[in-house]
Structures are given as structure tokens and as C-alpha cells.
Write a structure and sequence with these properties.
Blueprint: H1 4-15, H2 22-34, H3 38-43, H4 54-62, H5 67-71, E1 73-76, E2 79-82, H6 95-107, E3 114-118, H7 124-132, E4 137-142, H8 145-157, E5 164-168, E6 183-188, H9 201-204, H10 220-225, E7 233-242, H11 248-257, E8 260-266, E9 272-279, E10 284-285
Parallel strand pairs: 3-4, 3-6, 4-5, 6-7, 8-10
Antiparallel strand pairs: 1-2, 7-9, 8-9
Helix pairs in contact: 1-2, 2-4, 6-7
């Protein structure tokens, strides 16, 4: 028992040393412990007591465990996704890829019919695309069986079972895309972190390294994937990849060498975040 509003204030102060969203973190943890949506908790603040599980959840957060792994949920685009430590936590920065796809197809006369998500993880990118393009179907490919199970469960729970197909395979294996066909949109957030990069403990200690690291310069997976995009794209199709904020020029060069033109899109913080590839050699715009 106790005053929930005061406890949230005190908890936010404790979390401020490890989190730039300390108050939000405290509210999300309290709502989870109460079994309520955060909005409902805030409306009923004066009627609620401190939930018994709240202290244990706060201690986990103080050890840098991400809120999304503690609660098992993460909002992305217009979706509420289940997440586990088997998948990367979908971040708002990655919504830049969906925005770029929506903007691209708004300018054309046709919408994407087939979508491929390479390294689907939680399914966030594919499911957001299926939500944005209601007539499309898609394939989510993933090398981790545990991650693929999370993606498929998200797809089923959110009502996309009839439009999403989940495929277990790795793009490091020869012939991995021989039976997939061609796609109007290929989207991906591949690993792109340099092997020796210093990461926040919240990422380095909890998120799956296989989905983060990609060699000494972070470009290993781009080198594998980009030369194969031409054989995956339908006529007029595009690919959109997430990149690290310092990688736009290097990845654009890989695309140009593969006969692809490139457009760059920045995230809300103004950092390079997504590259759009299409057939036809050209430079980088954006």
C-alpha cells in the first residue's frame, strides 16, 4: 500500500542515472505490475496503490534491463508487439523505413503486392508494412528459430496470419533466395554494429549479439545482401535498409557497385537512418 504518485516520482529519480526516459520507464513498469494500460493507470492514479511487484521490476531496470524485456511489450508503428530477449527491441528510429516505403508508394500508381523482410526478428518491419499496405502479403525471413517464433506469434495475434509467411533460413547460405520469388518491397534492419563498438549496457548486456554485430566495420551483412537485391526485386521494386548514422556513404557505394541507385532518409533526430535502393546506377540523395 502507499501513494502511487509519490512512488513514481521517487522511482523516476532513482532511474534518472541510467535512463533518459526515467519517468516513462517508471510509469510503464507500474502499469505492467498493475495489469493496466499506462493511460488507464494515469487516469486512476489517485485510486491506485503501489503494486506488490513494482519494487522487483524497478530493481531489474536499475540493472539496465530494458523496459521492453521486463514488460514483454513494445509499441512500433501502429502495433503493440510482444518482445523477448531473443529479438532486438523495435525502436522508433526504425519507423523511418516504414515512412520511406509509404512515401515512395504514395508517389506511384501501384502499391506493393509482395514484401520481404530480411532478418525479421520480432516481425516489426514486415507487420508494420502489412498494416500500412492492407492489400499486400509478405515473407519474414530469420536465421534464429527463437526469433522467428516471436515474429509468427506477433503476426497471428495481430491478425496477419493469412498475409504473412515465416521462413527459417540465413542469407549466409548459398541459394537462400532461390525459391522466394521477386518482391515489390524488400525491407531490412540487418546487423550493422562494428565488432568493437562500445554500446550502452542496456543493449550490450541484453539484446542478441547476432542481430547487432557485423564485422570490424559493421558492413559484413550489407556486403552479402546488396549484390543479391537485383535478383529479389520485381520490376519497379525497391529495397529499404536501415543503416548506422555514419554508414550512408559506404553502403551507398556498395549499392552503386551492384547497379543500384540510392536515396537516403534521416530519422527524427536528423541522423541518416535508411537507404532506399532501386535498379539503375546513381548517386546518393537525401
Amino acid at each position: 500500500m502507499g501513494n502511487l504518485a509519490e512512488t513514481l516520482r521517487n522511482t523516476a529519480t532513482r532511474l534518472a542515472g541510467i535512463s533518459t526516459t526515467a519517468r516513462l520507464d517508471a510509469e510503464l513498469l507500474a502499469a505492467h505490475a498493475l495489469g493496466l494500460e499506462r493511460s488507464e493507470m494515469l487516469l486512476r492514479m489517485g485510486d491506485l496503490d503501489i503494486p506488490p511487484a513494482f519494487d522487483a521490476l524497478t530493481e531489474r531496470r536499475l540493472r539496465n534491463e530494458p523496459v521492453a524485456y521486463i514488460t514483454g511489450r513494445q509499441a512500433f508503428w501502429d502495433l503493440d508487439l510482444v518482445v523477448t530477449p531473443d529479438v532486438l527491441i523495435p525502436r522508433a528510429d526504425s519507423e523511418t523505413l516504414i515512412e520511406l516505403a509509404v512515401d515512395h508508394f504514395k508517389l506511384g500508381t501501384t502499391l506493393p503486392a509482395r514484401i520481404l523482410d530480411l532478418g525479421t526478428g520480432s516481425g516489426a518491419l514486415l507487420l508494420a508494412c502489412l498494416s500500412a499496405f492492407p492489400s499486400a502479403s509478405g515473407v519474414g525471413m530469420e536465421a534464429s528459430t527463437a526469433a522467428l517464433a516471436v515474429a509468427e506469434a506477433n503476426g497471428n495475434r495481430l491478425g496477419f496470419a493469412s498475409r504473412a509467411n515465416w521462413v527459417h533460413r540465413s542469407w549466409a547460405e548459398p541459394g537462400w533466395h532461390d525459391d522466394l520469388g521477386r518482391f515489390d518491397l524488400v525491407i531490412s534492419n540487418p546487423p550493422y554494429v562494428e565488432t568493437d563498438a562500445g554500446l550502452d549496457a542496456m543493449v550490450a548486456d541484453y539484446e542478441p549479439h547476432s542481430a547487432l554485430f557485423a564485422g570490424p566495420d559493421g558492413l559484413d551483412d550489407y556486403r552479402l545482401l546488396i549484390p543479391q537485391l537485383a535478383s529479389l526485386l520485381a520490376p519497379g521494386g525497391i529495397a529499404i535498409f536501415e543503416i548506422g548514422h555514419s554508414q550512408a556513404a559506404a553502403v551507398s557505394d556498395l549499392a552503386s557497385n551492384a547497379g543500384l541507385s540510392t536515396e537516403m532518409r534521416r530519422d527524427l533526430a536528423g541522423k541518416p537512418r535508411a537507404l532506399r535502393f532501386s535498379l539503375g546506377i546513381g548517386g546518393m540523395n537525401g
